[in-house]
Specification:
mainly alpha
Length: about 170
């Protein structure tokens, strides 16, 4: 969380080896969540409906799994978890859609908050992570740098496309 950066300022200087107490456990639990959600989608959804999320989860599981197993890059994974703050509003949007509450003030308010948190916690966070990875490329081992670069190269366009879909669906019908 953003408070972790205030309480553990070493994260600003070292996202590879430094992390606050509990961060490794948080990332490990997140891997478990993404694994469980992945299996649930495989068992309960049609592949053509969930392939993008399955792909997203695969990338996260690999990247976070490396951080958990190596006890390195936990700080970087912690930054990546900021993206999940927006998930609250994405999931609320889905619930409101399923409840057929699209034409309500609640849906409209959630749409605005959803886009705002999307820009701050998804797009800006991914841009910052990509910048950090590029600026620290000489300090990151080549294999890890490759995984991180591929991860960012996959996640960034996926999130931009989803942002466009949300914008089109909720604001430019």
């Amino acid at each position: 969380s953003p408070c972790r950066f205030c309480l553990h300022p070493g994260l600003y200087e070292d996202l590879m080896g430094t992390h606050p107490p509990g961060a490794h456990s948080l990332v490990a639990v997140s891997v478990g969540y993404f694994l469980e959600d992945f299996v649930d989608m495989l068992c309960n959804q049609k592949l053509h409906q969930s392939w993008e999320l399955l792909f997203h989860h695969s990338v996260v599981i690999v990247c976070f799994g490396i951080a958990v197993l190596l006890h390195q890059y936990v700080g970087f994974a912690l930054v990546a978890l900021l993206v999940e703050i927006n998930s609250i509003f994405l999931h609320l949007r889905q619930i409101l859609l399923m409840a057929n509450l699209v034409h309500t003030t609640c849906y409209r308010l959630n749409s605005i908050i959803n886009l705002g948190t999307y820009v701050v916690f998804r797009i800006a966070t991914l841009a910052w992570m990509t910048r950090w990875l590029f600026l620290n490329r000489e300090n990151v081992p080549p294999a890890t740098y490759a995984v991180g670069t591929v991860g960012m190269a996959i996640m960034t366009p996926m999130n931009i496309i989803l942002f466009y879909r949300l914008l089109r669906s909720d604001f430019f019908k």
